[in-house]
Structures are given as C-alpha cells and as structure tokens.
Amino acid sequence: MKIIIISILFISQINGQNYDFHDFQITNNNNAYPSNIFIHTMGSQPSYIAIIDSMLTPSWFINSGGLGIDFKVNQEVLTFFNKERQEWIVLNDKMIEIDTLKCANGYAPDYHDIQILDDGGYILQIYDSLIVNMSDIVEGGNSNAIVIYLIIQEFDQNKNLIFEWNAWDHLEISDYTNLDLTRQRLTWMHGNSIEIDSDLNLLISNRRSSEILKIDRITGDVIWFLGGPNNEFTFVDDSLNGFSKQHDVRRLQNGNILLFDNGNGHNPPISRALEYAIDNTNKTASLIWGFSHPEYLVGLAMGSIQRLPNNNTLINWGTLHNNGAIVTEVDYDKNILLELRFPENVRCYKVRKDDWSFSTNMIPGDANMDGKVDILDLIYIIDYSSQDNFELSTFYLFRYDLNNDRMFTELDIELSVQKIISGN
Question: Dihedral of the CA atoms 49, 155, 167, 206 (nearest 10)?
C-alpha cells in the first residue's frame, strides 16, 4: 500500500496553491462569551463561510465562492444564500444540504435575511420593480420611472405561500420626500432584516429611508413606523435623534429593540450599537444602551449586531474605510472583551455566535467519515476528481477540496496522500 501511495505522490507533482482561511488578528480576548462564531467573508478572494470556535481557531471553513451571504444558525439548521442560483441553502448537522428555499410567483429571493420558523415555515424578502408614471404623483416626476420596492413572502412547512406583503399596496411612495422622487430609476426601498416580533407580527428594516416598519402579519397593514419620513415616535435620550441607514433590527427578550446604526447620515458619521425601549402607548423610543467604537468606526454598508445570552453584545462593524472587517464583543458596561480584525478588503455582512455544531467529524479528507484519512478516502477523491461534472456542495468542498480552490484536481489527491503518509 505504501508503494502505491508514494507512486501517486510522485505522479502528482503539479503546480497548485493552497487557500487557507484569512489570517485575522485577535486584538482583545478577555472573558468573552464562549461560543462558536459563524462568519461569511467577502471582498478579498477567496470568500469563505467559516466557524471559528471558542478558542478562536477556524474549526471549519470552505471556499464558498458565490455562496454564503447571511450564513447563520436558523432554528436547528444552517442557512446561507446561493447567489449564483438565487436560492437559499439549508444545511444540516451532518454537513448535508437538505433543502433549497425559493420564492413563489416567479420572484427571485433577496439575500439580506431569511427566517426559519419553529414550525418549519420560513419568511423571505424580494425586490421587484414596476413602471410608474411618477408625474401623476410628484411634480417633476418621470413619466416612465422604474420603481424598485420590497415584497415579503411567508411559507408554511410544505412550501405553500401563506402570506405576501407588497410595499406598493401598503405604503404611499409620495410620503417618502427624503428621496428624489423625480429620478428615472428610483430605489424606493432597501430591506435588510426580517424579525418576528413578540406579538408575532413583523419588524422590517428599510435602510433606504432609515426606518423600521411594524407590519400586521395577517392584514399587511403597517402598525407603526419608527424612524424615517413617516416616523411616529419621539426619540428620548438619544443625542443623534435616532438611527441612520441601519442593519439587523431585532426584538430582545426584554421587549427592547436592538439594532446596528450604520450612521451614514449622522454629522459627523458614526456607527453605533443601540438598544431602545419602545413605548407603544406614548410613542417614545428611549435609548437605554449604546456603544460606539473608541476608534470612531463608521461602517458605511453591511454590519450586524447580536445580544448574547450573558448580556454581552457582538458587533460586526460592516464595511470600513481603510480597514478590513472588525468584530467586537462588549459587555453591558461597554468593556471590549473580544476583538477580531481581518485583513484589509475582507468584509463581513453578518456575524453570529451560537453553540450549534456539526454532529459529524471535522476532518478534511475523511471522505467516508470513519474518523481517519486513509487509502479508502484517497480512492473516493481520485474517483470524484476524475468526473467531468463536479457538485460544489458544502460536503464535497469540505471533505474533498483539500486546497480550498473550489476544484477537485490532482492537487487534492496529492494532499490526501500527504495526510495518509503523515498519519493525518
């Protein structure tokens, strides 16, 4: 057997490159919440989806190519977006892609957010457009304007469409005087988060106009607007009088709303992590907790926020000028407990912590999942790499693509041989 392995090793003297996960810096690490970090990187190639364990070691990652946006734990599974096929992928704890989720009525889903429900249903968002004679709506409007707006679709566990919300049917575009309504191509809405509220209605973040909409999940009526041109609330104890171009709006167990305030429109711009107490009766939004980075970071795009079980807050600062992605964890007293800094041009849309883990082993090259890399695995990889068409699924990318180049070639065979010779 050793003669066979060594022969293959000499035969496979080829040129190739290994792509390892980003060499990030740990600038703070002091009693952070012990949990896995789920992250998707983009910008600098290659892109990855990865799990960084509580020891801050990348314990699992694949070169994700056009996959991976909004990579996160969703109920008992992982979900992420396949940008090439315009669909959501559902991954189980055995590293198997068990489902793909799409929209109904011919729409293509958007990648900003997906919510899997505890009964197996799910909620997606869509961008659509229509031709509108805006001159009938606003002075100077274009008679042939293309208006881009938001649609929300909810499905039951059998993928039946059970609810659809269309912004054009429930909002008045003429109310959005903060926008230039005379443009020929008018991006009216930019939805970037979907949240099931505590009363089971929906909270939708519309970054385009710095507003949060609470939507009745049965009728589609807007219950209230927080922020933006239709704002119904008074901001209390917030020196900046609200948020600007926000991401990741979430309802906390204590009833408050947590969000990442990108802060593009603040003077000067500043990004913040914010927690508001909402008084629906008196229509007030009181800022009870907020954090901005000591370096006055401004994430002009993307970004995320998560309140952890021990009351710490995990913040991904989004797209930063002259910086790669920065992920910070702070306690409620605003002490920085953890900070990861990625190389310049690496960006992250959303970062989460969770105790979820794969139930199978995490050994690249273990094709038959018996806990070791041996000649049987090598045969699997040789056979797979000889095929004309490859399935670039998560399982194969992790088990077979040993140099992380999204191809299955002789180099993967060589690396498998090296693992066998070295005893893994």
Answer: -30
Q: Which of 55-59, 385-389, 395-399 has the weakest average pLDDT?
A: 385-389
In 3D space, the residue among 122, 57, 117, 65 whose CA is nearest the CA of residue 88 turns out to be 122
CB within 8 Å of 232: residues ≥ 6 apart:
224, 225, 226, 283
3-state secondary structure of 410: helix
- Average pLDDT of the residues in 368-386: 91
| Res 167: pLDDT | 98
Q: What is the C-alpha separation between 245 and 300, in angstroms, rounded? A: 8
What whole-number distance in Å separates Cα of residue 7 and Cα of residue 11?
6
Residues 6+ apart with CB under 8 A from 10: none
Two structure tokens written together for 388? 């004309």
- Per-residue pLDDT band at 11 (split at 50, 70, 90): very low
Q: Helical H runs in 153-312?
A: 167-170
> What whole-number distance in Å separates Cα of residue 28 and Cα of residue 294?
13
For 150, phi and psi rounded to 5 degrees? -110, 140
- Give 272's strand partners: 261
DSSP string, 332-354: TT--EEEEEEPPTTEEEEEEEEE
Q: Is the pTM of this model over 0.90?
A: yes
**How far, in Å, are 96, 106, 108, 324 from residue 86 at the CA level?**
19, 12, 6, 27
Q: For residue 373, count CB atoms less than 10 angstroms from its CB and return exposed for 0-12, middle for 13-18, buried for 19 or more.
A: buried
Strand, coil or helix: 34: coil
Residue 130, φ and ψ in degrees, nearest 5? -145, 155
Q: Write phi, then psi, for 413 (nearest 5 degrees).
A: -65, -45
Q: What is the pLDDT of residues 77-93, one digit of tens each?
A: 999 999 999 999 999 99
How does the average pLDDT of the chain come out, rounded? 94
Output the six-digit token pair for 75: 């109920």
CB 315 within 8 A of CB 308: no
Whether residue 342 contacts residue 351, with contact meaning beta carbons closer than 8 Å, is answered with no
- 216-268: pLDDT as tens digits: 999 999 999 999 999 999 999 999 999 999 999 999 999 999 999 999 999 99
CA-to-CA distance for 303 and 245, rounded, in angstroms?
10
- The stretch 379-402 carries a mean pLDDT of 88
Return the H-helix or E-strand segment holding 377.
Answer: helix 375-385
